[in-house]
Amino acid sequence: MRELLSTHKPGIIILMETKVHFSSMGNFFTNMGFSASTIVNPTGRAEGIWLIWDTDQVNVWASAVSNQFIQATIHKEDFEEWALNAVYASPNPLSRETL
Predict the structure, then answer these.
(1) How far is C-alpha 27 from the geometric centre of its chain's CA atoms?
(2) What's the number of domains the chain is made of?
């Protein structure tokens, strides 16, 4: 992950099915230059969505969050605003119905 971040320098990262709480990895991302996040921690060892961004590169406004998705608006200087939907569709059909 460190090599990918150093090589590509993304402004936004989305990780899904993280299986661990953000608190166990937050310092790693802070040290890599990501200063903000919207997090859906996993339930036990399942699920989990992390939307992490570098505020020097982009502004992110998370407008809706659930255990299966994060909906956000992205703004980057000199670019049009755009919508981002990070969706974790549960393999459980009953859970997926709430999506």
Answers:
(1) 15
(2) 1
> Which residues neighbour 46 within 8 Å (Cβ) at sequence distance 6 or greater?
17, 19
Q: Is the pTM value of this prediction over 0.85?
A: yes
Determine which helix (DSSP H) or strand (DSSP E) holds 61, and give its type and residue range: strand 59-66
Tell me the CA distances in angstroms from 26 to 35, 75, 95, one per residue in order.
10, 23, 28
Spatial separation of the C-alpha atoms in residues 37 and 96, rounded to whole Å: 24
Instruction: Let me know how many helices (H) and strands (E) the chain has, helices first.
Output: 3, 6
Residue 51's H or E segment, with its range, is: strand 49-53
pLDDT tens profile 33-76: 999 999 998 887 778 899 999 999 999 999 999 888 999 999 99
d(CA 55, CA 43): 28
In this predicted structure, the answer to whether residue 92 has a pLDDT above a threshold of 80 is no
Domain ranges, residue 59: 2-97
What local confidence, expressed as pLDDT, does residue 20 receive?
84
